[in-house]
Amino acid sequence: MGTFTVTVQEAIDLSAPDSPAKALGLDAYPIFDEGYRQSLNNKIIAHYNEQEIGHETISMFRYAMARKMNEIMPLFNQHYKASQYEVDPFKTIDIKSVGMGTENSSTVSNSKADGRVVGSNTPQVRLAGNGDYATSAQDSVSATNADGTAEQSTNNESSTTGYQGNPAELVLSMRQAFVNVDMMVIDSLQELFMMVWDNGQEYTRSNGYDNFAYGLYPFYW
Q1: Do 119 and 82 share a structural domain?
Q2: pLDDT for 193-210, tens place per residue?
Q3: How far from 28 is each of 12, 25, 44, 67, 71, CA to CA, in Å?
């Protein structure tokens, strides 16, 4: 039971016992994964369950909680997303190189051939062009032209992976990089609570001061 205000559990019981998230203003803040809201809410409620709210009324506390969560969660959502990445401490080098090339070549070939076949019953007669006298004659001319073009493309790809440094130091660095994002959120909410505890002593007024919380502590009424 709260001494100065009400505890978190009492605030839930008095306002919305069937919906703790709604009772405390934890039902609408931005979150990286809606499926994780219930888990985070449960941790917040469990951590502060016996703490007294730091506001005069439950409605004021609910408003302050909703405002605070809307302010801090955009940043913490980035932490949550980053913590989901799988990291291999023994992979500090990952280099990939890609090379592409094209080779063109062309060839040209030209050839020409002339020929004559002659049959003559008078072999002593000299032949002179088409006017030669002969029993029979046949001229032939042939020409060949050839053009060729060839193109060849090449793709080369290579990769290098591994690590540099001391393996033990790499593992230690990875562990130091881990953060508990849930506790970061929870710690950010501490200002919303009284953070004082009743030690069972009777509260008496003496010259305008009361004794409460951590033993004898002066507090002006």
Answers
A1: no
A2: 998 766 666 655 444 544
A3: 17, 7, 15, 10, 12
Q: Is residue 208 left, alpha or beta, with left meaning phi > 0 and alpha meaning psi from -120 to 50?
A: left
pLDDT number for residue 211 = 45
pLDDT of residue 157: 76
123 backbone dihedrals φ, ψ, rounded to 5° = -60, -15
Hunting for tokens 């401490």 — which residue is that?
Answer: 89
Is 167 contained in some domain? no
Neighbours of 185 (CB within 10 A): 22
User: How far is residue 26's CA from residue 8's CA, in Å, rounded to a whole number?
Assistant: 12
For residue 184, what are the domain limits? 8-87+178-220
Same domain, yes or no: 66 and 118: no
* pLDDT digit string, tens, across residues 147-195: 667 667 777 777 777 666 677 665 555 555 568 999 999 999 999 999 8
113 and 141 co-located in one domain: yes
Domain match, 144 and 104 both:
yes
CA distance 67 to 126: 121
**3-class SS at 100?**
strand
Backbone angles phi, psi at 55, to 5 degrees: -140, 160
Provide, for the chain, the percentages of residues in helix, strand and coil under a 3-state DSSP scheme, each rounded to the nearest 5: 35, 30, 35
Assigned token pair, 200:
């069972």
